[in-house]
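User: Can you recover a sequence for this backbone? Please restate the input before giving your answer.

Assistant: Of course. Working from this structure:
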């Protein structure tokens, strides 16, 4: 494969706090910060330190450790005290093991044909309607929504309702606290009703498999089931929506990379990984709390203090990724932290990767000249403490 010569790296305006993170990595890799909730925390920005925090058992995900709450309000998407996102071993290990029995690699791989069919149908609709259109509304949102709902077994007629409350939960800064609480209430009620339906009428879907999952005499409790399936729905479509939308923007901003992908579609898997590194849906990883005094990069973090490990900064660490400001779909180092790290690594990562790979292959294979229909600076992005991603992605192509 002959690669083109690269132009100088461009600044990436959409990544929030990029210059600040760069300076922090250089001069203050562990620095004090104040969360929107008013609680103090340590901001960790270097790759090795972020990775260490996310895998070190001395840092807990239990944000109510010793009665000192450290949650971001309202930006922490954990839905309950027994959420898998908030648990440490052995409870986390038990639930994760039960999830693995239902959310198998084989089941995900078996979805490829259905994902390709949904993708083809959506692009058929885009071609019939013609350009311009909003890529999010026409494609990036309905694709993963349909996939995760089919995978879980959410009835077709309920999908719009499920999508409404899930979108509110993951974009809390766009809504009042009362609206977020109501969306969480609706989500819990809908999930409890759906779980009851699966118990009464089992189907060949992940939700039924989770209801039936056992490990010897152990099984998921009702609250664990409700929270787990809610988290799967939230992460199963909202992050992929942003991944597809952001990827289209990045490829448009870097036409030499788009041309390379169009000439070498086999690079699609690498392109997806580079989108995840360069501007993934999760800029900041979930908070951790120190269970004992720990030194990070020479800074003493006291027992009970909160730490925010910033994946979006770690993925631009010059010590880990050569020329990190360069968007390069031929990059071979894919050890980014876009899906987290350690025991809380996103178990939906294989599904997100598969959907994005199928999506980009079809979009750029069937819509010749697919490009943004507006200048890059007109793209609006979701506010902080949301799933990272654009609000709209107007596109056009050669009809």
């Amino acid at each position: 494969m002959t690669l083109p010569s690269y132009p100088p790296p461009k600044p990436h305006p959409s990544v929030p706090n990029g210059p600040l993170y760069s300076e922090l990595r250089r001069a203050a890799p562990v620095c004090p910060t104040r969360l929107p909730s008013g609680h103090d925390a340590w901001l960790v920005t270097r790759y090795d330190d972020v990775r260490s925090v996310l895998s070190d058992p001395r840092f807990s995900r239990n944000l109510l450790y010793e009665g000192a709450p450290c949650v971001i309000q309202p930006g922490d998407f954990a839905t309950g005290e027994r959420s898998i996102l908030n648990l440490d071993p052995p409870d986390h290990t038990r639930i994760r093991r039960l999830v693995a029995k239902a959310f198998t690699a084989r089941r995900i791989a078996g979805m490829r044909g259905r994902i390709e069919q949904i993708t083809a149908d959506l692009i058929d609709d885009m071609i019939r309607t013609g350009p311009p259109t909003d890529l999010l509304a026409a494609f990036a949102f309905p694709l993963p929504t349909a996939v995760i709902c089919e995978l879980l077994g959410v009835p077709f007629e309920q999908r719009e309702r499920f999508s409404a409350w899930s979108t509110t939960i993951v974009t809390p800064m766009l809504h009042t606290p009362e609206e977020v609480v109501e969306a969480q209430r609706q989500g819990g009620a809908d999930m409890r009703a759906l779980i009851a339906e699966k118990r009464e009428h089992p189907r060949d879907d992940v939700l039924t498999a989770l209801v039936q999952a056992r490990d010897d005499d152990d099984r998921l409790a009702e609250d664990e089931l409700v929270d787990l399936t809610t988290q799967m729905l939230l992460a199963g479509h909202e992050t992929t929506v942003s991944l597809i939308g952001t990827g289209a923007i990045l490829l448009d901003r870097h036409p030499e990379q788009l041309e390379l992908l169009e000439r070498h579609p086999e690079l699609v898997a690498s392109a997806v990984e580079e989108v995840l590194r360069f501007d993934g849906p999760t800029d900041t990883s979930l908070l951790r709390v120190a269970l004992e005094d720990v030194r990070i990069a020479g800074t003493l973090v006291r027992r009970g203090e909160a730490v925010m490990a910033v994946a979006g900064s770690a993925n631009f660490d010059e010590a880990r990724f050569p020329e990190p400001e360069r968007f390069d779909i031929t990059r071979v180092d894919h050890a980014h932290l876009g899906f987290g790290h350690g025991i809380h690594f996103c178990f939906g990562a294989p599904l997100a990767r598969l959907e994005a790979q199928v999506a980009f292959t079809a979009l750029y294979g069937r819509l010749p000249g697919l490009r943004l229909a507006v200048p890059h600076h007109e793209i609006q992005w979701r506010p902080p403490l949301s799933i990272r991603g654009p609000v709209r992605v107007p596109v056009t192509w050669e009809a």
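That completes the design. Residues 1-14 have pLDDT under 50 and may be disordered.
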